[in-house]
Design goal:
- The structure is a single chain.
- The protein has an 8-stranded mixed β-sheet, with helices on both faces.
- It is 49% helix and 15% strand.
- By secondary structure, the chain is of the alpha/beta class.
- The chain is built from 10 helices and 8 strands.
Length: 316
């Protein structure tokens, strides 16, 4: 049990959020004032809004908030680096507090759950995951695809928290350890559990987006899923090896059967028996080459050691 009052940073990545940001900021400032008034967090706690290269007036709103309220800080990236890297930038900058909470700007995550997260931290948890209690607001396709994805991660040995996105609390101890991760291809939902610190969960009901449109279309969701699998597991490469071994074994058996047929049975030369194996093996080879290419591309990106994000402006 911790007795000291922690200082808190709430990190929020923003991309074209001008429609929802006024309401989000209003709720956040009220929540922060309540936490300070209840002696849950220190008065120097703050809210860090990270603009991920927005094309609308998101940054202008962040500037106005930083001028009006001392609790707001702003971080502007030079271009759109993607949600995960924008969140990473905020987590890296929030290095002067005891605990950091990351949450999206769309108000789908219950901000009141942060209160329970802080209590879990006070009870000894270094990481507290916000977990939605159901997926009733999702489409049938999204529910089933999410379930399949989590099962796939589990089969591949990737530790993850079911129904958890990026709504979490991390202590400075956990964040200091996380900052040692140097890779460019990141999947935070799989990387954070790798830290191994004591953790807990807070369940909440996920709401509909308050305003604006979701930035995660089907293509981006599949891209995030593949990045999670390929960044944290080599099982797909082992699957390629398994396919190669299986096809080789089948080829040996078919060769023996063909030799037996040629020597002892009457054989009929056919187009189908010639063309189908060629198509099948050709497809398998292209699939395996493509999969290997994905991993080579990731290595190519990593060895160049380009910055994960570039900060254009900071408001304190």
């Amino acid at each position: 049990m911790r007795d000291s009052i922690p200082s808190l940073a709430i990190v929020i990545p923003c991309y074209n959020e001008q429609e929802v940001l006024p309401e989000t900021s209003s709720r956040l400032i009220a929540l922060m004032h309540a936490f300070v008034g209840e002696n849950m967090v220190q008065p120097d706690s703050y809210i860090l809004l990270v603009d991920d290269g927005s094309k609308d007036n998101t940054w202008s709103q962040i500037e106005a908030l930083a001028l009006k309220y001392p609790e707001f800080r702003g971080l502007k990236l030079s271009r759109n680096f993607g949600h995960q890297h924008a969140l990473l930038a905020g987590l890296h900058q929030a290095n002067d507090v005891t605990i950091t909470v990351s949450v999206d700007a769309d108000l789908q995550d219950d901000l009141e759950a942060i209160r329970e997260m802080i209590l879990k931290y006070q009870q000894g948890a270094e990481i507290v995951y916000g977990v939605r209690d159901d997926r009733g607001s999702d489409s049938v396709f999204k529910r089933n695809s999410a379930l399949l994805f989590y099962k796939l991660l589990s089969r591949m040995g990737i530790e993850s928290v079911y129904n958890h996105a990026d709504f979490r609390l991390m202590s400075q101890v956990a964040l200091d350890a996380f900052r040692q991760f140097g890779e460019s291809n990141i999947y935070l939902r799989g990387m954070i559990p790798m830290l191994g610190f004591s953790s807990d969960t807070v369940y909440y009901k996920r709401a509909e987006r308050f305003a604006g449109t979701s930035k995660y279309n089907l293509r981006k969701m599949f891209s995030l899923a593949w990045n999670g699998v390929s960044s944290l597991s080599i099982q797909p490469l082992r699957f390629v090896t398994f396919c190669g071994f299986t096809i080789f074994s089948i080829s040996i058996l078919l060769s023996l059967y063909a030799l037996y047929s040629y020597l002892f049975l009457e054989t009929t030369m056919g187009w189908t028996s010639t063309v189908l194996p060629i198509y099948f093996l050709g497809g398998i080879q292209l699939l395996c080459i493509g999969l290997l290419g994905e991993y080579v591309a990731k290595i190519y990106k990593e060895v160049k050691q380009r910055p994960k994000y570039i900060i254009e402006k900071m408001l304190r």
